[in-house]
Structure to design on (566 residues):
């Protein structure tokens, strides 16, 4: 049993780095376009909603609406970046370009590849989240001193959503199926998890569901950090995100083994 | 532990109740070029995947470079170079970067890859293309880069899955010449192909496959001598089924495949005399080859 599953796990703690570096080398050639493309949407949401709705709403939870929203946008953009990198780019490397097939002929295992891809997607999430944090801090919507606390939370958010998206990639017969994950899972989660408005606005039953969602835990870590407030229940949120990262990783690895190593 | 480069014993593999490899055994000795010859769907690519440990057999034992596969496939793969059936190079990267990326998978440092890159590019005749993007290379150049990439870890064993499929004759001959150079350096090659000419030119020994079963094994010329052992006349231009009774007394054996009548004869002149008045026919006399062996063993041509 163990021997059957071993190829789906990372062979050692460093093999994944060569997969990450391959993706970095390719990305570096289109870095500027990639950064601009990834930031345009969260930035326009931040300013559009922040200024527009901010006028009407005024303050939320003791801060300006745009400051409240900035933290939500950081968490949401980390989620979206990690997800899209996994379901579109990594999926193409697996399915269309057969990049993974080439790597499977080397001493790397499938687990090394999956870990490298998850780490890469998380890196892109970290980049997107950090860029928004810096812009927000530069405009006075977040504390500069909070950035060192926000970065690990953004990175963990990236790992979590990359792992979850890897399960979707492992199951999807073609990329046409990804729209279901986006519209049925990610978009509702964004509204439920307190990114755009406080969770306390939701009906009670929805609040209980929302409390279980991974993005809620991300927001609960990132928002207090960015607003320079004490973070409550750090262990709970980090632990929950860790579980949401580790379990899907193992499930994805097992599913991908079924799919690619038949 | 086996001293063979590749050792398969009673290996079977099925996909959804379809038997792809059926209790197959063969051994590849170090330094030889061993061919797996068969039509599409004979199980050649599945065998390559089994040998690399990318797929697991349902039954049987596989040992590659002294390592049991798939359990220790990772160790075995350190000493293997692979040319897959379809190119999977990184098209956005340059030739040089492709080698760098692949070297890292074998735990090579950038300096180590840099040190071997010139000789690999020279081997692949890509010296002038080092900084070209792979997407801009011709099919033959991509194939040669794939071969150079397979050599990055200085492998003992090369697994080549249809290495010249899709290449023009010039590109094909260049690859063959490069593979012979590798054999001269003492590399072991396991080659899958459905090109008779490729198998005859390169392989020391080969295994002819049909539906995942071995139907013949041996040296190419010994197989041809054993199974055919005489001249071949291909006749086309008429209805082969009508022609068959006409020439039957003059031939050792005859096979109809498609619109061609294959006559196996010790004295070709007799057939020519017999058909002298049939100006509508075209006769092609040639020495026997592996295609004839396959036709004899299976009753059909290997060509798709």
């Amino acid at each position: 049993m163990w021997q059957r599953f071993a190829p789906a796990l990372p062979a050692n703690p460093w093999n994944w780095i060569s997969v990450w570096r391959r993706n970095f080398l390719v990305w570096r050639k289109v870095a500027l376009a990639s950064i601009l493309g990834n930031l345009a949407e969260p930035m326009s949401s931040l300013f559009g909603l922040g200024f527009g709705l901010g006028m009407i709403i005024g303050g939320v939870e003791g801060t300006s609406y745009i400051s409240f929203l900035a933290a939500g946008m950081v968490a949401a953009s980390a989620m979206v970046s990690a997800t899209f990198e996994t379901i579109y780019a990594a999926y193409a490397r697996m399915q269309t370009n057969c990049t993974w097939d080439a790597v499977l002929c080397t001493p790397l295992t499938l687990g090394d590849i999956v870990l490298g891809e998850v780490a890469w997607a998380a890196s892109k999430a970290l980049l997107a989240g950090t860029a928004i944090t810096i812009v927000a801090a530069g405009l006075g919507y977040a504390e500069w001193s909070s950035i060192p606390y926000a970065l690990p939370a953004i990175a963990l958010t990236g790992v979590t959503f990359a792992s979850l998206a890897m399960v979707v990639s492992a199951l999807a017969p073609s990329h046409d199926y990804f729209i279901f994950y986006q519209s049925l899972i990610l978009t509702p989660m964004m509204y439920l998890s307190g990114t755009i408005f406080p969770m306390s606005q939701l009906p009670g039953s929805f609040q209980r569901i929302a409390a279980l969602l991974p993005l809620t835990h991300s927001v609960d870590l990132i928002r207090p950090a960015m607003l320079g407030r004490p973070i409550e229940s750090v262990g709970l949120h980090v632990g929950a995100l860790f579980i949401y990262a580790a379990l899907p990783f193992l499930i994805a690895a097992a599913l991908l083994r079924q799919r690619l190593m038949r | 532990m086996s001293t063979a480069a590749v050792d398969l014993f009673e290996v079977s593999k099925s996909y959804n109740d379809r038997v792809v490899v059926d209790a197959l055994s063969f051994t590849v000795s170090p330094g030889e070029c061993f061919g797996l010859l068969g039509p599409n769907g004979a199980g050649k690519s599945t065998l390559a995947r089994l040998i690399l440990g990318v797929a697991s057999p349902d039954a049987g034992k596989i040992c590659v470079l002294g390592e049991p596969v798939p359990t220790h496939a990772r160790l075995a793969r350190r000493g293997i170079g692979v040319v897959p059936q379809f190119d999977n190079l990184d098209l956005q990267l340059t030739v040089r970067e492709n080698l760098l990326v692949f070297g890292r998978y074998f735990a090579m440092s950038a300096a180590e890859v840099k040190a071997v890159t010139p000789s690999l590019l020279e081997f692949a005749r890509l010296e002038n293309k080092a900084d070209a993007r792979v997407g801009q290379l011709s099919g033959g150049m991509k194939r040669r880069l794939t071969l150079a990439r397979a050599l990055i870890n200085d492998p003992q064993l090369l697994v080549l899955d249809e290495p010249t499929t899709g290449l023009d004759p010039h590109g094909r001959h260049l690859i063959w010449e490069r593979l012979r150079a590798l054999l001269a350096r003492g590399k072991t090659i396991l080659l899958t192909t459905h090109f008779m000419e490729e198998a005859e030119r390169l392989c020391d020994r080969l295994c002819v496959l049909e539906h995942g079963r071995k139907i013949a094994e041996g040296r190419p010329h010994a197989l041809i001598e054993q199974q055919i052992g005489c001249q071949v006349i291909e006749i086309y231009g008429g209805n082969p089924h009508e022609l068959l009774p006409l020439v039957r007394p003059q031939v050792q054996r005859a096979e109809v495949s498609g619109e061609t009548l294959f006559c196996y004869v010790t004295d070709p002149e007799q057939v020519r005399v017999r058909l002298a008045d049939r100006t509508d026919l075209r006769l092609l006399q040639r020495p026997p080859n592996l295609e004839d062996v396959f036709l004899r063993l299976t009753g059909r041509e290997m060509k798709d």
Notes: Residues 40 and 194 of chain B are 7 Å apart (CA to CA).
